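Take a minute with the sequence and fold tokens given here and flag any structure token that looks odd. Thanks in advance.
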Amino acid sequence: MTAALKQHIAAKRDFGTAVCRRIGENIAKLGFPTQTGINPPDFDAAEFSLVTDPFTQSQDLVGYWYNPNKQRIGQIKFHGDGSFYAEYDVVQPHPGKKQFFVEAINAWGQQDNIKTEAKLLDIPQ
């Protein structure tokens, strides 16, 4: 890991931890029972890299979360303008609305305005 990458991770740790907490709160709000084993993302568990934005040429911090089988289950990207986008897989039937499947939780915004939303899919009848 390069010094620049370590510096970007340290600079975004509090922001990223807040994003992870908001994603976890959204998962809990949906009402999943604890036995489903859905854990919220952990900022420090992500595998990070720096990616050059082709439009702005800024160095964006990108992190990916993986399950124990090394399948990607989420990502978070911090843009050079201070905004971010994250997506974290849930992949479970909605606990209260049987006609929906919860694919993921999406999060976006700025450090002082973190928004989250469940990505729902219709279950064919």
User: Anything to note?
Assistant: The mean pLDDT is 94.
